[in-house]
Amino acid sequence: MLAGAMLAVPHGPAAAAQTTSPDRFSVRNLTDQPLITTQVRVATDKAGNQDQGWSHTFGDEFPYPGQTIQPGQIIYFQLAVNYNGPAGQVTPSSTTIDYTIGAGGPAVHVSAYQNGKGWPSHETSFGCVSDDAAWTCSHDAHGADVTDATKQTKVVTDKQQQLELVNKLCQLGNANVSCTFDPKPTLTTTMMPYVTVGDVQYNYTEENSKHTWAQEWDNGTTMEVGGSYSPVDIEVQDVIKVEVKVTFDHEWGTSNSSEIENFVYVPPDYSGWIEAEIPAWQLTGNLHIVLGNETWTLPEVTFTTPAPPTGTCPGQVDGSKAGFCWTPRTQKRPIDLSKNPPPSTPPTS
After folding, report:
1. Is the peptide bond prior to 120 cis by the omega test (within 30 degrees of 0)?
2. How far apart are CA 297 and CA 180, in angstroms?
3. Neighbours of 235 (CB within 10 A)
4. Range with the largest mean pLDDT of 145-159, 229-243, 297-311
Protein backbone atom coordinates (compact mmCIF):
# COMPACT_ATOMS: atom_id res chain seq x y z
CA MET A 1 0.00 0.00 0.00
CA LEU A 2 1.36 3.44 -0.90
CA ALA A 3 1.93 5.85 1.95
CA GLY A 4 -0.48 8.35 0.42
CA ALA A 5 -3.17 5.88 -0.63
CA MET A 6 -6.60 6.11 0.99
CA LEU A 7 -7.88 3.21 3.03
CA ALA A 8 -9.42 0.26 1.23
CA VAL A 9 -10.15 -2.55 3.68
CA PRO A 10 -12.24 -5.59 2.70
CA HIS A 11 -14.81 -7.06 5.04
CA GLY A 12 -13.27 -9.66 7.32
CA PRO A 13 -14.96 -12.79 8.68
CA ALA A 14 -17.87 -12.22 11.02
CA ALA A 15 -16.89 -12.02 14.67
CA ALA A 16 -18.46 -14.34 17.22
CA ALA A 17 -21.60 -12.98 18.88
CA GLN A 18 -20.77 -10.93 21.97
CA THR A 19 -22.08 -8.00 23.98
CA THR A 20 -18.91 -5.87 24.20
CA SER A 21 -16.85 -4.24 21.49
CA PRO A 22 -13.97 -6.35 20.08
CA ASP A 23 -12.54 -3.32 18.32
CA ARG A 24 -9.29 -2.89 20.23
CA PHE A 25 -6.19 -3.27 18.09
CA SER A 26 -2.48 -3.34 18.93
CA VAL A 27 0.89 -2.64 17.30
CA ARG A 28 4.01 -4.13 18.89
CA ASN A 29 7.55 -3.03 18.03
CA LEU A 30 10.01 -5.94 18.00
CA THR A 31 12.84 -4.02 16.33
CA ASP A 32 15.67 -2.05 17.93
CA GLN A 33 14.41 1.18 16.32
CA PRO A 34 11.42 3.27 17.45
CA LEU A 35 8.26 3.19 15.34
CA ILE A 36 7.28 6.80 14.68
CA THR A 37 3.70 7.64 13.74
CA THR A 38 3.75 9.96 10.72
CA GLN A 39 0.09 10.05 9.61
CA VAL A 40 -3.35 8.93 10.81
CA ARG A 41 -6.32 8.96 8.43
CA VAL A 42 -9.95 8.15 9.11
CA ALA A 43 -12.96 7.48 6.83
CA THR A 44 -16.58 6.38 7.02
CA ASP A 45 -16.67 3.77 4.29
CA LYS A 46 -14.46 1.07 2.88
CA ALA A 47 -13.50 3.22 -0.10
CA GLY A 48 -12.18 5.90 2.23
CA ASN A 49 -13.89 8.77 0.38
CA GLN A 50 -15.73 10.42 3.28
CA ASP A 51 -13.94 12.19 6.08
CA GLN A 52 -15.02 11.33 9.60
CA GLY A 53 -14.01 13.09 12.80
CA TRP A 54 -11.49 11.47 15.12
CA SER A 55 -13.86 11.63 18.07
CA HIS A 56 -16.35 9.53 16.13
CA THR A 57 -13.76 7.08 14.79
CA PHE A 58 -11.72 6.32 17.92
CA GLY A 59 -12.54 5.33 21.48
CA ASP A 60 -10.52 5.97 24.64
CA GLU A 61 -7.25 4.83 23.02
CA PHE A 62 -6.19 6.38 19.74
CA PRO A 63 -3.07 6.92 17.57
CA TYR A 64 -1.77 10.38 16.72
CA PRO A 65 1.03 11.83 14.57
CA GLY A 66 4.27 11.92 16.53
CA GLN A 67 3.34 9.00 18.76
CA THR A 68 6.40 6.75 19.23
CA ILE A 69 6.44 3.03 19.93
CA GLN A 70 9.76 2.25 21.58
CA PRO A 71 11.62 -1.07 21.05
CA GLY A 72 9.71 -3.81 22.85
CA GLN A 73 6.72 -1.55 23.51
CA ILE A 74 3.12 -2.25 22.52
CA ILE A 75 0.39 0.37 22.00
CA TYR A 76 -3.37 -0.04 21.59
CA PHE A 77 -6.08 1.88 19.78
CA GLN A 78 -9.84 1.46 19.65
CA LEU A 79 -12.33 1.97 16.86
CA ALA A 80 -15.54 3.37 18.31
CA VAL A 81 -18.77 1.46 17.75
CA ASN A 82 -21.65 3.89 17.11
CA TYR A 83 -24.50 1.44 16.72
CA ASN A 84 -27.96 3.03 16.69
CA GLY A 85 -30.02 -0.13 16.54
CA PRO A 86 -31.43 -2.12 13.57
CA ALA A 87 -33.46 0.84 12.28
CA GLY A 88 -30.82 3.47 12.87
CA GLN A 89 -28.01 4.75 10.66
CA VAL A 90 -25.14 2.30 10.25
CA THR A 91 -21.83 4.15 10.47
CA PRO A 92 -18.66 2.11 9.81
CA SER A 93 -15.28 3.33 11.03
CA SER A 94 -11.86 2.81 9.48
CA THR A 95 -8.34 4.11 9.81
CA THR A 96 -4.93 3.90 8.18
CA ILE A 97 -1.87 4.59 10.35
CA ASP A 98 1.56 5.15 8.83
CA TYR A 99 4.77 4.56 10.78
CA THR A 100 8.45 4.79 9.95
CA ILE A 101 11.06 2.42 11.40
CA GLY A 102 13.30 5.01 13.00
CA ALA A 103 13.34 8.65 11.94
CA GLY A 104 12.94 8.78 8.16
CA GLY A 105 13.20 5.00 7.81
CA PRO A 106 11.09 2.55 5.81
CA ALA A 107 7.33 2.85 6.18
CA VAL A 108 4.86 0.45 7.79
CA HIS A 109 1.10 0.81 7.22
CA VAL A 110 -1.58 -0.46 9.60
CA SER A 111 -5.26 -0.54 8.63
CA ALA A 112 -8.35 -1.32 10.72
CA TYR A 113 -12.07 -1.40 9.95
CA GLN A 114 -15.39 -2.08 11.65
CA ASN A 115 -18.75 -2.19 9.84
CA GLY A 116 -20.78 -0.17 12.35
CA LYS A 117 -23.35 -2.92 12.92
CA GLY A 118 -24.34 -4.47 16.21
CA TRP A 119 -23.75 -8.04 17.27
CA PRO A 120 -23.91 -10.72 15.97
CA SER A 121 -23.60 -8.90 12.61
CA HIS A 122 -20.59 -6.87 13.73
CA GLU A 123 -17.48 -7.37 11.60
CA THR A 124 -13.91 -6.11 11.79
CA SER A 125 -10.78 -6.44 9.71
CA PHE A 126 -7.16 -5.58 10.42
CA GLY A 127 -4.01 -5.56 8.34
CA CYS A 128 -0.38 -4.44 8.28
CA VAL A 129 2.23 -4.21 5.49
CA SER A 130 5.86 -3.11 5.34
CA ASP A 131 7.39 -1.22 2.41
CA ASP A 132 10.82 -2.77 2.99
CA ALA A 133 11.43 -6.53 2.80
CA ALA A 134 14.07 -6.23 5.53
CA TRP A 135 11.23 -5.83 8.04
CA THR A 136 8.00 -7.79 8.29
CA CYS A 137 4.68 -6.84 9.81
CA SER A 138 2.85 -10.02 10.74
CA HIS A 139 -0.65 -9.78 12.19
CA ASP A 140 -3.74 -11.60 13.32
CA ALA A 141 -7.28 -10.24 13.59
CA HIS A 142 -6.41 -7.54 16.15
CA GLY A 143 -2.62 -7.28 16.61
CA ALA A 144 0.47 -6.56 14.49
CA ASP A 145 4.16 -7.27 15.18
CA VAL A 146 6.89 -5.33 13.36
CA THR A 147 10.03 -7.51 13.26
CA ASP A 148 13.33 -7.87 11.44
CA ALA A 149 12.79 -10.29 8.57
CA THR A 150 15.91 -12.35 9.35
CA LYS A 151 17.49 -13.45 12.61
CA GLN A 152 20.52 -11.38 13.60
CA THR A 153 23.10 -12.03 16.31
CA LYS A 154 25.54 -9.31 17.32
CA VAL A 155 28.40 -9.16 19.82
CA VAL A 156 28.79 -5.71 21.38
CA THR A 157 32.14 -5.03 23.06
CA ASP A 158 32.09 -1.23 23.21
CA LYS A 159 31.28 -0.28 26.81
CA GLN A 160 29.24 2.79 25.92
CA GLN A 161 27.17 0.85 23.40
CA GLN A 162 26.63 -1.85 26.03
CA LEU A 163 25.26 0.69 28.48
CA GLU A 164 23.00 2.25 25.84
CA LEU A 165 21.55 -1.15 24.91
CA VAL A 166 20.88 -2.09 28.53
CA ASN A 167 19.24 1.24 29.32
CA LYS A 168 17.16 1.17 26.14
CA LEU A 169 15.99 -2.46 26.16
CA CYS A 170 16.20 -3.95 29.66
CA GLN A 171 13.54 -1.74 31.21
CA LEU A 172 11.32 -2.94 34.01
CA GLY A 173 7.96 -4.10 32.75
CA ASN A 174 9.12 -4.64 29.15
CA ALA A 175 7.84 -8.19 28.75
CA ASN A 176 8.75 -8.31 25.05
CA VAL A 177 12.51 -8.11 25.73
CA SER A 178 14.52 -10.93 27.30
CA CYS A 179 17.62 -9.94 29.31
CA THR A 180 19.56 -12.86 30.78
CA PHE A 181 22.93 -13.03 32.51
CA ASP A 182 25.50 -15.82 32.25
CA PRO A 183 27.90 -15.27 35.17
CA LYS A 184 31.42 -16.59 35.50
CA PRO A 185 31.85 -18.92 38.49
CA THR A 186 33.59 -16.29 40.60
CA LEU A 187 32.10 -13.75 42.99
CA THR A 188 34.74 -11.28 44.13
CA THR A 189 34.81 -8.87 47.06
CA THR A 190 35.98 -5.35 46.34
CA MET A 191 35.52 -1.77 47.50
CA MET A 192 33.43 0.65 45.48
CA PRO A 193 35.13 3.96 44.70
CA TYR A 194 35.31 6.70 47.32
CA VAL A 195 32.50 9.24 47.16
CA THR A 196 31.93 12.39 49.19
CA VAL A 197 29.15 12.15 51.74
CA GLY A 198 27.57 15.01 53.67
CA ASP A 199 28.76 18.55 53.05
CA VAL A 200 32.08 20.40 53.31
CA GLN A 201 33.05 22.42 56.39
CA TYR A 202 35.24 25.53 55.92
CA ASN A 203 36.94 26.69 59.13
CA TYR A 204 37.36 30.48 59.13
CA THR A 205 38.19 30.64 62.85
CA GLU A 206 41.54 30.51 64.65
CA GLU A 207 40.63 27.33 66.53
CA ASN A 208 40.26 23.69 65.51
CA SER A 209 36.63 22.79 64.82
CA LYS A 210 34.89 19.43 64.91
CA HIS A 211 32.55 19.03 61.96
CA THR A 212 29.84 16.48 62.81
CA TRP A 213 26.68 15.32 61.06
CA ALA A 214 24.40 12.30 60.80
CA GLN A 215 24.81 10.51 57.49
CA GLU A 216 22.60 7.89 55.87
CA TRP A 217 24.20 6.12 52.95
CA ASP A 218 22.09 4.35 50.34
CA ASN A 219 23.58 2.85 47.23
CA GLY A 220 22.18 0.32 44.77
CA THR A 221 23.52 -2.11 42.21
CA THR A 222 25.75 -0.66 39.51
CA MET A 223 27.02 -1.70 36.11
CA GLU A 224 30.66 -1.02 35.32
CA VAL A 225 31.16 0.64 31.96
CA GLY A 226 34.50 1.88 30.74
CA GLY A 227 35.98 1.96 34.24
CA SER A 228 33.14 4.05 35.69
CA TYR A 229 30.00 3.03 37.51
CA SER A 230 26.48 3.64 36.24
CA PRO A 231 23.35 3.01 38.35
CA VAL A 232 21.21 0.05 37.36
CA ASP A 233 17.52 0.24 38.26
CA ILE A 234 16.24 -1.87 35.40
CA GLU A 235 15.28 -5.46 34.71
CA VAL A 236 18.85 -6.81 34.73
CA GLN A 237 19.06 -6.05 38.44
CA ASP A 238 16.45 -8.74 39.06
CA VAL A 239 18.28 -11.06 36.67
CA ILE A 240 21.47 -10.55 38.68
CA LYS A 241 19.68 -11.32 41.94
CA VAL A 242 18.38 -14.63 40.59
CA GLU A 243 21.70 -15.72 39.10
CA VAL A 244 23.69 -14.91 42.23
CA LYS A 245 21.22 -16.77 44.45
CA VAL A 246 21.20 -19.84 42.20
CA THR A 247 24.92 -19.91 41.40
CA PHE A 248 26.55 -18.60 44.56
CA ASP A 249 23.84 -18.95 47.23
CA HIS A 250 24.25 -15.27 48.14
CA GLU A 251 21.59 -12.59 48.48
CA TRP A 252 22.39 -9.81 46.01
CA GLY A 253 21.25 -6.65 47.77
CA THR A 254 19.90 -3.59 46.04
CA SER A 255 20.87 -1.17 48.79
CA ASN A 256 22.67 -0.95 52.10
CA SER A 257 21.48 1.90 54.25
CA SER A 258 22.07 2.90 57.86
CA GLU A 259 22.47 6.16 59.73
CA ILE A 260 25.78 6.95 61.36
CA GLU A 261 27.38 10.03 62.88
CA ASN A 262 30.51 11.16 61.04
CA PHE A 263 32.99 13.78 62.14
CA VAL A 264 36.24 15.40 61.03
CA TYR A 265 38.53 17.82 62.86
CA VAL A 266 39.15 20.87 60.69
CA PRO A 267 42.22 23.10 61.45
CA PRO A 268 42.04 26.87 61.00
CA ASP A 269 42.05 27.96 57.36
CA TYR A 270 41.28 24.40 56.24
CA SER A 271 38.27 22.69 54.73
CA GLY A 272 37.12 19.25 55.86
CA TRP A 273 34.78 16.56 54.56
CA ILE A 274 34.10 12.82 54.71
CA GLU A 275 34.63 10.26 51.97
CA ALA A 276 32.97 6.85 52.03
CA GLU A 277 34.29 3.59 50.61
CA ILE A 278 31.70 0.84 50.29
CA PRO A 279 32.44 -2.91 50.63
CA ALA A 280 30.94 -4.59 47.59
CA TRP A 281 30.48 -7.78 45.62
CA GLN A 282 31.41 -7.92 41.95
CA LEU A 283 30.25 -10.39 39.34
CA THR A 284 31.37 -10.55 35.69
CA GLY A 285 29.81 -12.47 32.82
CA ASN A 286 27.95 -12.23 29.52
CA LEU A 287 24.63 -10.43 29.22
CA HIS A 288 22.23 -11.61 26.50
CA ILE A 289 19.43 -9.41 25.14
CA VAL A 290 16.77 -10.81 22.80
CA LEU A 291 14.11 -8.74 21.03
CA GLY A 292 12.13 -10.32 18.19
CA ASN A 293 14.66 -11.71 15.69
CA GLU A 294 17.61 -9.77 17.13
CA THR A 295 20.04 -11.06 19.76
CA TRP A 296 22.86 -9.06 21.35
CA THR A 297 25.63 -10.57 23.46
CA LEU A 298 27.48 -8.18 25.77
CA PRO A 299 30.67 -9.96 26.94
CA GLU A 300 32.55 -9.19 30.17
CA VAL A 301 29.88 -7.03 31.77
CA THR A 302 30.54 -6.34 35.46
CA PHE A 303 27.88 -5.70 38.09
CA THR A 304 28.62 -4.40 41.56
CA THR A 305 26.44 -4.25 44.65
CA PRO A 306 27.03 -3.15 48.25
CA ALA A 307 27.90 -6.15 50.38
CA PRO A 308 26.67 -6.68 53.95
CA PRO A 309 28.70 -4.78 56.60
CA THR A 310 32.04 -6.53 57.03
CA GLY A 311 33.24 -4.96 60.27
CA THR A 312 36.68 -4.51 58.70
CA CYS A 313 36.89 -0.71 58.65
CA PRO A 314 40.07 0.12 60.62
CA GLY A 315 39.25 2.06 63.80
CA GLN A 316 35.60 2.53 62.81
CA VAL A 317 33.33 0.49 65.01
CA ASP A 318 30.28 2.49 63.99
CA GLY A 319 31.36 2.92 60.39
CA SER A 320 31.44 -0.78 59.58
CA LYS A 321 27.89 -1.19 60.93
CA ALA A 322 26.65 1.27 58.34
CA GLY A 323 27.92 -0.87 55.48
CA PHE A 324 30.65 1.56 54.43
CA CYS A 325 34.02 2.75 55.62
CA TRP A 326 34.53 6.48 55.98
CA THR A 327 37.65 8.60 55.94
CA PRO A 328 38.01 12.21 57.13
CA ARG A 329 39.67 14.55 54.63
CA THR A 330 41.11 18.03 55.09
CA GLN A 331 42.75 20.48 52.73
CA LYS A 332 44.11 23.99 53.16
CA ARG A 333 41.62 26.55 51.98
CA PRO A 334 42.68 28.64 48.94
CA ILE A 335 43.70 32.20 49.90
CA ASP A 336 41.24 33.90 47.54
CA LEU A 337 38.35 32.31 49.44
CA SER A 338 39.29 33.81 52.81
CA LYS A 339 36.58 36.48 52.68
CA ASN A 340 33.92 34.80 50.58
CA PRO A 341 32.58 31.37 51.60
CA PRO A 342 32.91 28.92 48.70
CA PRO A 343 30.07 26.72 47.48
CA SER A 344 29.35 23.57 49.46
CA THR A 345 31.30 21.18 47.25
CA PRO A 346 34.53 19.25 47.80
CA PRO A 347 37.64 21.33 47.00
CA THR A 348 39.68 20.33 44.00
CA SER A 349 43.09 18.89 44.68
Report:
1. yes
2. 10
3. 20
4. 145-159
